[in-house]
Amino acid sequence: MPDLSPIIKAYDVRGVVPGDWDEDVSRAIGAAFAEFVMSDGEATAVVTAHDMRESSVPLSRAFAEGVISRGVDVVEAGLGSTDLLYYASGSLDMPGAMFTASHNPAQYNGIKMCRAGAAPIGQDSGLATIREWAERDAYDRVPDRVGTVSSQDVLAGYADHLHSLVDLSGIRPLTVVVDAGNGMGGHTVPVVLAGLPLEIVPLYFELDGSFPNHEANPLDPANLVDLQAAVREHGADIGLAFDGDADRVFVVDENGDPVSPSAVTALVAVRELAKGRGTTIIHNLITSRAVPEIVREYGGEPVRTRVGHSFIKEEMARTDAVFGGEHSAHYYFRDFWRADTGMLAAMHVLAALGEQSRPLSELTAAYSRYAASGEINSTVADTSATMGEVRDAFAEQDGVAVDELDGLTVQLPDGAWFNLRASNTEPLLRLNVEAPDEARMTELRNRILGMVRA
User: Residue 314's pLDDT band (boundaries 50, 70, 90)?
Assistant: First the structure.
């Protein structure tokens, strides 16, 4: 095998098919994954699922061939969202592998791997070992058998488990526009939200890995335009946009205005704290500072961590946190094996809206306290040099605090702050800015972008 470091990132596999990786690479990664879970004494079977991309089925089948070649069985859950794979891993108590490139364009694909119980596998917790073994593609151990491949439909069980966590049966009737972006939300939403007091207005539920309508990346405001228009057209109470593998959800209110993921994090955190079964809430360092403020106000203990699902899940396990949220609209639940699930987060928002009479804009206003830029991407030749220049421009100023937990975070004395970090999955530098008001946020955002893009 060639050097796999360009496609095996901090917490998953991601790259262009077939340019960066292909079925041979997937087969080698499957064999290495099987050896890893065997050597860990963890399991003798793994569960897989895949999204709707054209390359997902052949890649997942090649991976399964690698797995069974090492004497480990494969249970194929088939077509599913990433959080459905996490449900399968948790409920079946098996390591898992999900074939998806999430929100990336059609030519990309990837693998998200986990231990049994949906426990994360990142660079420091097994992914580096899997990469090393896959590159070597040779093993001293001789398996005493060839594994078997079987199929199991877990969609109904996934829906039942979500319903056991959030009861929507008694809410007031709501009109809900859902934009699946031709991704896996079109497969899971009709099953999970069926039979509830919800009128679903579907947008782009047809599974199509070429994404003919818009990219399945709701973090980009351009991809929310159709959802916003449909919410206004139908007089809907709420709009939901899922990304390609439906592990993330974005929310728009009855006016078609986006509800920030930080506001959703705070809303769901308050609901989880109200259960009285824990006080720790995880938030990554790019979420609004309103999140830790609100968590403390409701008797919780906020814990700040770096960006990325494997880091969030590890911190949740360490602290026994009940919930975690990220600025990118990943939401993690202790009751869901500490895994991220856009569907469960959406159900919490629907419950919060449907259990009272106010419109969503009024409900979420209390959770939105500051002006934020959203995530702005820039392509630069040398990310570390650029971040160094920005750091030097701010670090010596009075009252400025700098930390490098994840990229560069700069806290300014007037309450404004920004984070600049390199993407783990794409050749980009990402900027997030927050300030007490819109004018200050715009001024700071433009100053930093001027430096980054100079």
Answer: confident
Is the CATH number 3.30.1360.200 carried by domain 155-369?
no
What is the pLDDT at residue 425? 58
Give the whole-angstrom CA distance, residue 179 versus residue 55: 23
- Tell me whether residue 102 is one of the annotated catalytic residues: yes
Average pLDDT over residues 114-142: 93
Residue ranges covered by each domain of the chain: 13-152, 155-369, 371-453
Q: Give the HSE-up count for residue 117: Cα atoms under 13 Å, Cβ half-sphere.
A: 9
332: helix, coil or strand? Answer: strand
Q: How many CB atoms lie within 10 A of CB 412?
A: 16
Q: In whole angstroms, give the CA distance from residue 177 to residue 175.
A: 7
Among the options 26, 102, 288, 328, which is catalytic?
Answer: 102
Note the pLDDT tens digit of each residue in 38-81: 987 767 899 999 999 999 999 999 999 999 999 999 999 999 99
Say what the alpha-carbon torsion angle 271, 275, 276, 277 is, to the nearest 10 degrees.
Answer: -110
Cα–Cα dist 417/289, whole Å: 9
| 3-class state of residue 216 by DSSP | coil
User: Residue 272, Cβ neighbours under 10 Å: how many?
Assistant: 24
Return the pLDDT at 10. 80
pLDDT of residue 302: 98
Euclidean distance between CA atoms 358 and 256, whole angstroms: 16
Q: SS3 for 200?
A: strand
Q: At the topology level of CATH, where does 13-152 sit?
A: Alpha-D-Glucose-1,6-Bisphosphate; Chain A, domain 3 (3.40.120)
How far apart (Å, rounded) are the C-alpha atoms in residues 182 and 245? 10
CA 34/CA 73 separation, integer angstroms: 9
% residues pLDDT > 90 (the chain): 88
Backbone angles phi, psi at 445, to 5 degrees: -55, -50
